[in-house]
Amino acid sequence: MIKHLDKKAEIAAKEFACHQKSEEIKSIIQDDPNNKLGKPIRKNRTDITFKDILIAINWEGETFKNLSIKWDIPYTTLKSFYEREFNKVKADLVDYLQ
Predict the structure, then answer these.
(1) Residue range(s) defining the domain that contains residue 55
(2) 20-56: per-residue pLDDT in tens?
(3) C-alpha to C-alpha distances, 14 to 17, 38, 51, 98, nearest whole angstrom
(4) pLDDT tier at 1, thresholds 50, 70, 90
(5) What is the pTM of this model?
(6) Is 98 helix (H, G, I), strand (E, B) or coil?
(7) Which of 46, 25, 51, 48 is nearest to 36 (CA)?
């Protein structure tokens, strides 16, 4: 019984640490210290940036389909923009986290 409780406590501690790290990462992304995440999806839609999509997908539980409807942007445009921009900045994101 005690081993079972110890295991649950260990799992809970790991999940909490992971959640805290996730919030730290989100904060770094929101701050965008090198200003590399603010590229707008289109010239006529400067209100939606890669950072907005990154946070919506990874922290707010949104899907590309929902964002497509919400922002009135084709699904394929959102998805390809996200993938293209993510590939450009993934090395920078790793640097942010170190």
Answers:
(1) 2-96
(2) 667 777 888 888 877 788 888 988 889 999 999 999 9
(3) 5, 32, 27, 19
(4) very low
(5) 0.73
(6) coil
(7) 51
Domain count of the fold of the chain: 1
On whether the CB atoms of residues 68 and 78 are closer than 8 A, the answer is yes
Element (DSSP H or E) covering residue 10? helix 2-31
- For 57-96, what is each residue's pLDDT tens digit? 988 999 999 999 999 999 999 999 999 998 888 877 776 6
CA–CA distance, 3 with 46 (Å, rounded to integer)? 54
Q: DSSP secondary structure string, 29-94?
A: HHH-TT--S--EEETTEEEEEHHHHHHHHHTS---HHHHHHHHT--HHHHHHHHHHHHHHHHHHHH
